[in-house]
Amino acid sequence: MDDKVRPIDVTTVQERVYQELRNALYQGRFMPGEVLTIRALAAALGTSPMPVREAIQRLVTENALTQLPNRTFQVASLTSETYDEWIRLRCEVEGYAAQRAAQRATPAICNRLRKINRDFGAAIEAEDASGMLQGNQHFHFAVYEVAESDTLLKIIGSLWLRFGPVLAFVQHVPGSIDMFRRGVSVHERVVAAMERHDTAEARFALALDIRAAASWFRRHHFGAPVEVTAGDAALPRSSRRSRAF
Amino acid sequence: MDDKVRPIDVTTVQERVYQELRNALYQGRFMPGEVLTIRALAAALGTSPMPVREAIQRLVTENALTQLPNRTFQVASLTSETYDEWIRLRCEVEGYAAQRAAQRATPAICNRLRKINRDFGAAIEAEDASGMLQGNQHFHFAVYEVAESDTLLKIIGSLWLRFGPVLAFVQHVPGSIDMFRRGVSVHERVVAAMERHDTAEARFALALDIRAAASWFRRHHFGAPVEVTAGDAALPRSSRRSRAF
DNA sequence: CAATCAATTTTGTGATCACATATCGACGAT
DNA sequence: ATCGTCGATATGTGATCACAAAATTGATTG
Q1: B19 touching A (Cβ < 8 Å)
Q2: What's this model's pTM, rounded to 2 decimal places?
Q3: How far apart are CA B205 and CA A69, in angstroms?
Q4: Higher pLDDT, A2 or B238
């Protein structure tokens, strides 16, 4: 019977609105600090305000949107201070995901990851700005899916949600090509570690990827000379003890 | 003028409903798997269904509630498999919070934590079941607050939310007193590590606290002999390399 | 020309209504 | 006796309305 009919879309309107807003945030279609009004979104989406307000409330609980005391909503923006905070959190959580992925990696999985990373590299050489962002995201989440933890995946998704509007800036920064190129080689390092089931190295390499991109972006966006020193978050090798952040 | 009147509660009804449900979940007033209906909750809370549905949706995005394909809501329950998953996540995230707390600890903070831990111990000796749970929660979050990261605190709050209904069972298990007593001494170990700014030890000790309580609970609830071996999540000492989970 | 105040519009919030679907129970046919 | 059908009830979902507070606008005044 499965070949006769296909399952239809039974998701609720609110869910579709939520996913649409989520994608828009991921892809940086909203600017940080941009204010959102329920009625305007409802009109743009072609629905009533009702599903929109519920979707917006969900995004507020995920810290993707902020509700001001005026009760108006705006796209959450990362200040210079909270930026570091989020980067370190990402190193911890996504590093852990890479660690778990390294345990479960198979040759087939590693080949698939290499394919994805090659596509990422192709987008870079083609200077396809949005393709780079999507390719990078594609690789990271492909790694995290290997960790086989739905809840972990959801948490990481929430973390990324907050960086979507920030990533929108990256496309306008000259020299981002070089940064992405370095990303490709670090990704390869992650896959190589996964292949050897070297969990600590996988965790370190992935945290390195995040940290490198973060400090590059910090230089070009906040203009601060101080780099993010998430350092021991990944505890790369044996004898390193925790130093101050 | 400030001494004439005090600020009144200007939060929205939806927010208060959300907090009320949150507290109820924390304290285990709902059983895992219990189904919740919007209208019934609205009647019990004395409001219209409107604020309730938004609050419920927020809890669904936090994975504290589940929405079945029937579109009905139920309190999320931890199966034997997902249980381990959440425990390991807690070791990672809360261990990281303890690590950060150890960097920022001051003698005054450590004294306050010891005071909180003594209150926890007092509740145990008084065999005050709900006092134990609250005392334990109080200590943990007091540690996490020292980490000075609002977002980290929120994430941990979401993780705990899922364990609230599970904790409700603990009160009915005989012998929980001994488990809690061991908790007090592990807490002391955490504080001692914080006092020395020994970040790795603080992280390990706190993960140990979670792990020990988790395996105790697993024995008495799921009846499985296999213990949670979150092992290297905390990377306690120098030369340990990652072993399989 | 700048500042202030009132009128108007906008916006989030909550309540109510309408509707499709799911659930459960009774009844009847095979 | 079992399965299927029909009807009644309950429940989530979406739309619309009402209202208070905030934002905006425009006129008026110093």
Answers
A1: no
A2: 0.85
A3: 40
A4: A2
